[in-house]
Amino acid sequence: MTETSIQREIRLAIGSMSDVVAWRNNVGTAMHARGGVVRYGLAIGSGDLIAIMRPGIFVSIEVKTPHGRETPEQRLWAELVRSMGGHAIVVRSVEDCVAQLEGIRRERR
Q: What pTM, to 2 d.p., does this model score?
């Protein structure tokens, strides 16, 4: 499976959860028609999916294939999120993502 296909399945699974909302977070640069560079996305290294769990829990979700590795920028982003009280998770399947979100739910109870 590719990261894109894993991510698509995760987005469908999250869509069925009543206490989680997630958005796709594309990050990069593009050339503007007038010649300038346009940066888009939350931040370099930020998760593929950005989610909020009730009651206001921030979750950054980095989707990887079974053998995919985090970049230094992704690890730095995860450290920042955790230092601010949020959750930054790396997931490799729908089941992995659901299990980690369940763990966050249990931790917050």
A: 0.92
